Amino acid sequence: MSDRSPLPIADEHARSQAPSSPRNDVIDGLRGKQAAWQNWSGAQRAQPSDKWMPRDEDELRRMVQRADSLRVVGAGHSFTPLVPTAGAILSLDHLSGLVNHDTATQQARIWAGTRLFDAGPLLQGIGQAMPNLGDIDRQSIAGALSTATHGTGITLPCIAAGASALRLVTAQGEVIECSREHDADLFRAAAVSLGALGVITQVSLQNMPAYRLRERVHVQHLDTLLPELDTWAQRHRHFELFTFPNSRLAIVKTLDLSEDPITTETQGGDSDDVALKLGCELTRWLPSLGRGLQAMIGRFIKPTDRVNHWYKIFASARNVRFNEMEYQVPAAAGAACLDEVCKAVAASKVDVFFPIEFRFIAPDAYWLSPFQGAPGEARCSISVHQYHKQDYRPLFAAAEPVLRRHGGRPHWGKLHTVDTAGLHALYPDLGRFLQLRQELDPHGKFLNPYLRKLFGVPAS
Predict the structure, then answer these.
(1) Which of 50, 192, 312, 359 could form a disulfide with 308 if both were Cys (CB 3.0 to 4.6 A apart)?
(2) Domain-located, residue 418
(3) Where is region (Disordered) located (predicted)?
(4) Which residue range is the domain that position 117 belongs to?
């Protein structure tokens, strides 16, 4: 693989920025060689042998070369055990900021450790914007790509689809550049790769001119929404809903491009979090209250209409912790699957206050993307959440059979029980990916026990 050479972005207006300071949350999580690591929800934990935070790419290369076993850690917002290892964990938080940009093509190259909440104002400052984001912006750009993190929009693919090129440090410490045009197979494998092919250090993003969004939120009964989900998705640039299975009420959110002035109205923010946490705690301790509380959700959520810069609208506060399962089902099955999941959860009598989330996502061509498909083959994302203080297994056991029966593909960062055989049936290019992984990392340096089991790779 050493004959692959970097492909710099040609731009006479390009400017560079040194990697910025690391984020405090990761620093706190990496202090002390013997300190444990845990993910955001607290469900995944590890006692790594070493914790590294390289200050530049050369230092990262040397760390990779000397490591026997290594996993990269981002914000810890994956609920699956992608990080836990007895080997070393490595944070990219020093590799953060803008590398260069091209005004004419609306491209920007950024360091892969850049958090999405930093990327927003950074890109806004050069007049650019990412076409889409999810409603959580804590992740690093490398983590968002590697797990196919997404937002919503029937014409808008996952965040990784906005990448046009990336740099990858392999198990041997080589630096490879790949793109849509150069070494395209490696690019289609590496962009969504769960960190199993190497360490992504830089990403080129195909952006668009900075824009504003109008957000509208209201509460509506699910039964009136189900027959019109496709209409809602076609009518709005972004459409999603959060429905409460026991009351069948849904919070509907739409986002559309707007040239109107920025408004002073803000999200519910802290007050919404207080209501959600109170509902979760009451349901946890007094399960009989759960259904009644869900029926009152319309009193907690008031209609909103606000306009702001793209990156200030996409992200929502997520201060109440949870664990999550998510599957991507074909769009044609979306409404029926959502209805069945809600009915299965309600019939299970599981104590849960968190709503079920429903979104549309356009297809892409990445080998391990849950959205891989031909143009026009959109998928619907259905996400089931459980409060972090409650056992998520009964809830997920009620929902998962329905999601799988409808041809759902699991989100790589969300909990699921699909085994290797099941993955091969769902991901037609998984075999090609695993062959490339073996070529790039024959000794499994970037695998942990979870990935070995997931991919069917024997312990070395």
Answers:
(1) 312
(2) no
(3) 1-27
(4) 24-209+430-452
Cα 245 to Cα 341: distance, rounded to the nearest angstrom: 8
- Do 287 and 388 belong together in one domain? yes
Q: What pLDDT does residue 294 have? A: 79
Whether 221 and 239 share a structural domain: yes
Q: What is the pTM of this model?
A: 0.91
How far lies 244's CA from each of 189, 325, 455, in Å? Answer: 37, 16, 35
Q: What percent of the chain has pLDDT over 70?
A: 91
- Residue 13: pLDDT above 80? no
Number of Cβ atoms within 10 Å of the Cβ of 297: 21
Distance CA 132, CA 239 (A): 12
Place of tokens 């196919």: 148
CA within 13 Å, CB half, 152: 29
Provide the residue type at 62 as one letter: R
Helix or strand run (H / E) with residue 360: strand 356-361
CA separation for the pair 38, 73 (Å, rounded): 10
Cα separation, 110 vs 201, in Å, equals: 9
Q: What's the Cα-to-Cα distance from 28 to each of 84, 97, 142, rounded to whole Å?
A: 17, 20, 20
Q: Is 99 within a domain?
A: yes
SS3 of 331-353: the string is: HHHHHHHHHHHHHHHHHHCCCCC
Place of tokens 């998510």: 326
Contact 321, 44 (CB under 8 A): no
Please give the tally of structural domains in the chain. Answer: 2
Res 143 pLDDT > 50? yes
| Structure tokens that stand for 279 in this block | 């509902």
Q: How far apart are CA 58 and CA 386, in angstroms?
A: 41
**H or E segment at 280?**
helix 270-285
Dihedral, CA of residue 240, residue 147, residue 1 and residue 170, to nearest 10: 140
Beta strand 88-91 with 50-52: parallel, antiparallel or unpaired? parallel
209 in helix, strand or coil? strand
Question: What CATH number is associated with residue 360?
Answer: 3.40.462.10
What is the spatial distance between Cα 407 and Cα 396, in angstroms, rounded to a whole number? 16
The pLDDT, as a whole number, for residue 162 is 97
